[in-house]
Specification:
By secondary structure, this protein is of the alpha/beta class. It has eleven helices and eight strands. The structure holds zinc ion (ZN).
C-alpha cells in the first residue's frame, strides 16, 4: 500500500531536525534473476545517510537489456508487502509492478528501481494501521495524515542517483504520478514520456484509487459508480437488442450473469461507501 506520502513525522519536519546528508551511491552486487517475463539482472545499491545517526540505505535495480542509449522504460516502485507477498486487493501495487515488468519484457529493455525499505519509510505496523483506518472509513490520504505522515512526495534522490550511476539520463516513466516525473526532472533525469501504469480497479481498490486520483492528482481513469451503472445499463440494452435480433439464449444468459456480477460488485462498493460516509 505504498503511496506518495512522506514517512517523516510532521513535527520533526517542522523543526527541521531531519536534515539528511547522503553519501555517494555504490553498486554492491549483481545477479541474474530469471522470471516468468524473462531473465532480468538484479543490481544492489547502497548509500550512506547521516541525520544525527548513521544508516545505510539500499535499493534494487531490476534491469533488462542494454540501457546505454535512448530512453528506456523506468518504473520507480515502492515495496508493498501486503499487496506483493499476500496478494491484497485493496491497492494497486502488485499489479503495477507486474505491468512494469511485462512492459519492459515486451520492449526487451528497461529498469525498475525498487525501494524495499517499507519498514524504514512508513513502517509495516503503520502500514497496517492505515489499512485499519481505511476499514473504519477514512480514505488512504486521511489515514496517513491521521497517523502523522505528511501528504507530500517521496524523496526520489536515491533513485535518481542510481540512474546517474548507471549513466541513464533520459527515461520514459511508467507511472500515473506527475509528482514523480517532476521530481526526476528536478534531479537531472529527463522524462521524455510518462507512460500509464494503471491497474484495473476492483471493489476493494476503487476507493484507494479514487483518493489517489482526486487528492494526489494521479492520472487515473477510475470509473465512478455512476459511470459504472451507466455502462451496465447500456450493456443490458445492447443485450436486449441482440436477443430481439435472434441472438442465442446461452450467450444472453452468460452476458446477463456477467452484468449482474458487475452490478452486484458496484452496488456492494457503493453501499460500503455510504456506510463509511455515515
Ligand atoms: Zn500496496
Amino acid at each position: 500500500m505504498s503511496i506518495s506520502l512522506s514517512a517523516k513525522p510532521m513535527q520533526a519536519l517542522a523543526t527541521g531536525t531531519l536534515t539528511e546528508q547522503t553519501g555517494t551511491v555504490r553498486q554492491v552486487v549483481s545477479a541474474r534473476m530469471p522470471t516468468k517475463w524473462g531473465t532480468f539482472r538484479l543490481l544492489g545499491f547502497e548509500r550512506d545517510v547521516s541525520s544525527g545517526s548513521h544508516r545505510v540505505d539500499s535499493a534494487l535495480a531490476i534491469v533488462l537489456g542494454d540501457l546505454s542509449h535512448g530512453a528506456p522504460l523506468l518504473r520507480i516502485h515502492s515495496q508493498c508487502l501486503i499487496g506483493e507477498a499476500f496478494g491484497s486487493l485493496r491497492c494497486d501495487c502488485n499489479e503495477q509492478l507486474e505491468i512494469a515488468m511485462r512492459a519492459i519484457a515486451t520492449e526487451r529493455r528497461g529498469i525498475i528501481i525498487y525501494d524495499h525499505q517499507e519498514c524504514r519509510s512508513v513502517g509495516l505496523m503503520a502500514e497496517l494501521q492505515t489499512c485499519a483506518l481505511q476499514d473504519a472509513g477514512l480514505d488512504v490520504v486521511d489515514a496517513y495524515q491521521a497517523l502523522g505522515f505528511m501528504a507530500e512526495c517521496r524523496d526520489f534522490g536515491f533513485p535518481a542517483a542510481i540512474l546517474h550511476k548507471l549513466g541513464i539520463s533520459h527515461v520514459r516513466l511508467l507511472s500515473n504520478n506527475p509528482d514523480k516525473a517532476r521530481a526526476l526532472v528536478e534531479a537531472g533525469v529527463e522524462v521524455l514520456a510518462q507512460v500509464p501504469c494503471e491497474a484495473v480497479p476492483n471493489t476493494h481498490s476503487i476507493a484507494y484509487l479514487r483518493a489517489k486520483k482526486e487528492k494526489l492528482g494521479h492520472t487515473l481513469s477510475v470509473v465512478g459508480i455512476g459511470q459504472s451503472l451507466q455502462s451496465i445499463c447500456a450493456m443490458m440494452r445492447s443485450i436486449d437488442t441482440e436477443i430481439s435480433n435472434g441472438q442465442d439464449r446461452e450467450q444472453f444468459e452468460f452476458s446477463s450473469v456477467a452484468a449482474a456480477t458487475d452490478l452486484d460488485d458496484t452496488l456492494t462498493e457503493s453501499a460500503s461507501r455510504r456506510t463509511i460516509a455515515s
